[in-house]
Specification:
75 residues, 3 helices, rod-shaped
């Protein structure tokens, strides 16, 4: 939707941001809550050398959060 709305002007582009922000919010929540909080603390994922996914989850959540912030800016 954002790709199609790029030529529609600022108001059209900002109106098309809704689904992208919703998807980014869910990605951020799933990776942060699922891997960092539940996997890391509840299942002690940080102790395992073979199935520790916290570093990757942190990078993914950080990148998703940064993209979400840039997309949410309305100028």
């Amino acid at each position: 939707m954002l790709w199609r709305a790029r030529a529609a002007g600022a108001d059209g582009f900002h109106a098309a941001k809704g689904p992208a922000l919703f998807a980014l919010m869910w990605c951020f929540a799933i990776w942060t809550i699922g891997f960092v909080a539940i996997g890391g603390e509840w299942f002690a994922m940080w102790q395992s050398a073979t199935w520790n996914g916290q570093d990757g989850a942190t990078r993914f959540a950080t990148l998703t959060g940064i993209v979400m912030l840039f997309l949410a800016v309305r100028e």
